[in-house]
Structures are given as structure tokens and as C-alpha cells.
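Limitations

Structures in this collection are predictions, not experimental determinations, and the ligand pose is part of the prediction. Treat each record accordingly. The example that follows, with G3I as the small molecule, is included so readers can see exactly what is and is not provided: the inputs are given verbatim, and the output is the predicted complex.
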Amino acid sequence: MMLAPASLAQPARGLAALARPRGILFGAAINTGRLADAAYARQMATEPQLLVPEWEGKWAALQPEEGRFDFAPLGAVLEFAARNAQQVRGHALIWHQAMPDWLAPALAAGPARARALLAAHLDAVLSRTAPAIRDWDVVNEAVANAGGPFTENTPAVGDLRDTPWLRALGPGYVDLAFQLARERDRTLRLTYNDYGVEGDTPFAEEKRQRVLRLLRRMVAARVPVDALGIQAHLIMDEPFRPEPFAAFLREVRGLGLAILLTELDLREAAVVPPDLAARDALVAARVEAVVGTALAEGCRTVLTWGLSDRDSWLATDKDVARKDGGIHRGLPLDAEGRRKPMWQALARVFETGATAPPR
Ligand code: G3I
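Predicted complex:
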């Protein structure tokens, strides 16, 4: 029996309500700097069941000076979620970006100081957020890219990016972060989060192999990692074929790890069709193919990196913004908050797409 596709009208129910009956959790990144906009707040209350702070959970926001913690921005995310009966996931306990100015020099003082700083940050942040946040991106983007036309080539030490964390603590900093987080909270879901593993290119394949080598080693060493977060910042100009991505997801599930799509959005091609309908159809088809592949391989959590094209980092970050003065149409809602074919594609794949047990 064909299930009726999601209504083309704007149903009151959001994407999370359409996903929930099949055990799929839909979420979105929220930026508290935009909550004064009533339309933005309404979208964030309507569509997602799960929220992730776009910047409020990072070192620069949480510990702007050594020992001075500012939980107000993250607290605003938690308060909004509580008011709307939503969950919150954490992002990110270790990342080489969004570091406050004092941190890299402090890490360079040596491994003992670096370990003490990491432990103090985890002590403060995990104890403060434990009741509300049950899943954290413990380490974000530790694996070096293999370069290529779609990702920057990153200096590497083995498979890992050369970052202040690696230079301070050595390659074992990833394991240490997960171990220190587990010591502080035995029931927290600990996620490793990264990007560039979706495409059908030799560079994406190399990134997939590097991420798999990291995860296999961590699992074999009984490092407490529970999940892989796949950012899914899709790039239309990068070819996609389900099978290489599906094979990777099967390997990850074979390690006993959960799979999340954590930052889904789409960077349109450098040259786009003249009419919006054609552009939106291309975006919807790619999103449906990628998310459909992930759900069919056991992914159960899908978050978009924002909801409206207007509010996306893709519209403002100079490295990815369109050069033709337009904005990428890579999120479910257009700049006016109207649901686009990408929204309908997500609704369709949530309601009728093939799924597999989470693991
Ligand atoms: O620091 C100010 C803060 O004081 C102010 O109150 C607030 C008001 O909104 O803005 C803050 O500024 C900016 C912040 O975004 C919030 O908009 C920061 O200067 C800016 O660097 C920050 O950029 C974020 C970036 O990560 C770095 O943290 C982007 O919004 C966010 O979309 C981007 O997200 C990353 C993921 O974390 C990891 N994966 C890639 C993704 C895209 O780059």
C-alpha cells in the first residue's frame, strides 16, 4: 500500500512530527542570536524535536577566559528547548576552531597543562549540562582531509589534523577526550563528528578510510565512543552514488556505533539553473538520496544545520557563500520561511523511506 506523501500544503506538523512515528529523530541547529525574530523562533519551535547549539556549546562561548565560564548562551538554548518540549545535543567539546584566544597558547605550555585544561572544561560543562544534554560531539573534525576540489587539504600527522590539541597531547588526545568524558558521565552518548565522507570521489573515499581507521582503533582499544556524527554538508558539484556511502555506513554499524547526520545542508553548484523550481528539485533529489541511504543503513537521527536559507552559514561564510549574490537554497525553508521541495523530500524519506534497525 502506497503511503500518501506528506501533504504539499503547509501542515501544522513539522518534520519531527512526521519522522517520529518511524523512530526517526529530526533536529536542527539553533542560534540564540536570532531568537528575537518571531518567525525564526516559530520555525525552531515547529520543525525540530532536537536542537543543537550552532555556537553556544563551543569553547569560545563557554570559556571565553581561562576559568571564567559563561553558560548564559547555552542556557538560552536549553530554556528554549524546555519551553518547547525539545531535546538538545551538545556540540563540541574539542574542536580546533571556535577556540578562545587564550587557549592555543595555554595548550602549547605542555601536555600536563593541556590535560588539566581539558579536564577542567569537561568538569564544568558536563556537570552543568548533564540533566539536559545526553549526547555530545566530544571531538569534532580530528581527521585530516585528503584535499581535492571540495575540501581544503589539511596538514596531517598520520590520519589526524595537525591542530593545537594534537600538538599539545599527541595523537592520543582523541582517546583521552572520550575517556575523560566517560569518567564524568557514564550514560552520556559520546559522538565523534566529522565531514567530507558522503561523496563519490577518491578524496571522500580516503576520508572515509581515515575515519574508519580512527574508529576501528578506538573500538579495539575499548575507548568509550558510541556514535559517529556525519555532518553531511553536501556539495552539489561533488558526485554522489549511494553505494560507497552505504558501504561506509555498514562498516561503522559493524563497529557497534550509532550513526547520526548532524549538520545537513547543501551547497548548490557554482552554476545553477535559472529558475528556482529547477534548483529546488536538484537540491531535493540529492538530499533524498543521501538521507535515504543513511536511514536505510541504520541512521536514526537527522539534523539540519539551521532551517531557513536566510539564516544559514552558507549565506554568510565567505568561503562557501554564492559568488553570484544569491544565497544557497540548501535548507528545508526558503529565506521567507516557506517549506521548499527539500522539506518535502525530507518528509517523504522520513515517512516512506527504507529504514534498518539502528544497529
Ligand atoms: O561570538 C559572537 C557572540 O559574542 C555573539 O553574541 C553571537 C550572536 O549571534 O555571535 C557570535 O559570533 C559568531 C557565531 O558564529 C554566532 O553567530 C562567531 O563570531 C562565528 O565564528 C560563529 O560561526 C560559527 C562557526 O561554526 C564557528 O563556530 C557558525 O555560525 C556555524 O555555522 C559554524 O558551524 C560549523 C560547525 O560548528 C562544525 N561543522 C562546520 C560548521 C560550518 O562551519
